[in-house]
Amino acid sequence: MNDLRFNHTALPLLVSYGVFLYFALMFAVLSGYSYGAVILLLGSLYFLARRPGLRLSAEDKAIAFSLLGVFLWSLFIMLLHDNDAKTLDQSSRLLFAIPILFLLLAVPPRLPFMWAGVVVGVVLSNGVAAWQIHWLGDDRASGFMNIIHFGNIGLVFGLFCVAGMLWAGAQAAYAQRWRIAFSIGILASIYTVVASGSRGSWLALPPVLLLFFVAFVNKRNLKHAIAAVLTVVITVGVLYSIPETGVEERYDLAVTEIDKYKQEKYVFEDNAVSSVGARLEIWRTALINIPQRPWLGWSEKDYDAEIKRMVADKEIDPYMLKMANTHNNYLEVLVYQGVIGLLALLAMYALPLWFFCKRIRSADATVKALALCGSTLVASYAMFSISQVILGRNNGIIFFALTLVILWGCMRNAEMRAGHVLSKNGSKPRFT
Fold first, then answer.
1. Would you tell me how many other CB atoms lie within 10 Å of the CB of residue 289?
2. Which candidate, 274, 356, 417, places its Cα nearest to that of 59?
3. b/e per residue, 330-349, with b = 16+ CB within 10 A?
4. In 82-146, alpha helices (H)
5. From first to last of its 432 residues, what are the pLDDT tens digits of the chain?
6. Residue 98, SS3?
7. CA of 107: how far to CAs of 1, 43, 48, 54, 113, in Å?
């Protein structure tokens, strides 16, 4: 894994600082993720220019090809349907993540830089949220992102802090300091999600809790695991019961909007838009049109024309003309890229999820922590994709792709080091 030829260059330090800045500035400034991302991309181009001997496992190649596959299919669809070239703007981020993956497999960042970046990043998100709510008077915090993405990514940062507790336990004299830092990060994450008012963020909790349950539960600690689950449930219940958090209000509003849509196809009433009703209507519209062109999807022009026709014929609500997308990543891909595009998207989620999940019961604390981070990232995005096109915005797709390859590169190097130590001690390595 780690290419020792680069240890005497500035590249390892550059990678570490790039990863730190990527996480630390995620919420703090406009396009904060781009600073670290550019550093890592430039570092990867320098790395590849040196023509390193890449030693990729089958899993490394599968992740790279899953990212490449989504990009290539979106390129093919753009050419086939004569869509606007800007549609490649987001999927190109997947392409750029591949050389960074190769770099991080050979020259991983120092883990304290990564973990520190996560904690600093989510704490800074609180400063932005508090400024927007208490100084600017906004009802919901959005940072420099879309409101929903602010809450979603803030939640993922908190989940990383929970997993980081495992790594902290292996840091000897510094363990307590890291535990305190991660505890602050978890609390900051909760505030960020609540301040955003994003209901879709909470969808990620059931599969994430299941992942943590599988990672930790055995006969000896079953009581502790149940206690941890109860703690999470009680925390969510407390947040729901406190009026100032707005959680109960947002939940009740969602239930009301669903009921009204069922009864009246309610989307727009008294100059107020039902966000849930609008989503249900655009999903219904997509499900009507997908079967007409299932394999290759609709061109953007044809689909826009079809929406206008359906509105004119009073088949769907007129508000659908104002909807920018389907608010569901799976339906969005089916509409514009067909079944093959959906399969490519599912592969990009399923393969890394499976590879990370294979390690969430690792005996090595570092490998286990990073595997949990990776699996929760993918599982969260799979759930976020139900209620929004999270890969349709720069911050959404960059955070997924770049965080994925950072965690994978760090985890692969950690397990190689763990396997090397076991081999030196005369034990059979547990990693391949």
1. 19
2. 356
3. bbbbbbbbbebbbebbebbb
4. 88-106, 111-130
5. 666 667 667 899 999 999 999 999 999 999 999 999 999 999 999 999 998 888 899 999 999 999 999 999 999 999 999 998 887 889 999 999 999 999 999 999 999 999 999 999 999 999 999 999 999 999 899 999 989 999 999 999 999 999 999 999 999 999 999 999 999 999 999 999 999 988 778 889 899 989 998 898 876 666 766 776 677 677 767 665 666 555 555 555 555 555 565 555 555 554 445 667 788 889 999 999 999 999 999 999 999 999 999 999 999 888 888 888 899 999 999 999 999 999 999 999 999 999 999 999 999 999 999 999 999 999 999 999 998 999 999 999 999 999 999 999 999 999 998 875 544 554 443 333
6. helix
7. 8, 10, 12, 11, 14
Residue 425, CA distances (Å) to 172, 363, 420 in order: 20, 15, 9
Cβ density class 384-408: b for 16+ within 10 Å, e for less: bbbbbbbbbbebbbbbbbbbbbbbb
**Half-sphere exposure in the Cβ direction for 107 (13 Å, CA):** 28
Report which of 55, 65, 68 is spatially closest to residue 105, judged by C-alpha positions: 55
**C-alpha of 122 from chain center:** 14
Integer Cα distance of 374 and 362 in angstroms: 14
Residues 212, 78: Cα–Cα separation, whole Å: 40
| Separation of alpha carbons 305 and 414, rounded Å | 52
Q: For residues 46 and 15, what is the distance between their CA atoms, to the nearest angstrom?
A: 12
Encoded tokens for 109: 């960042």
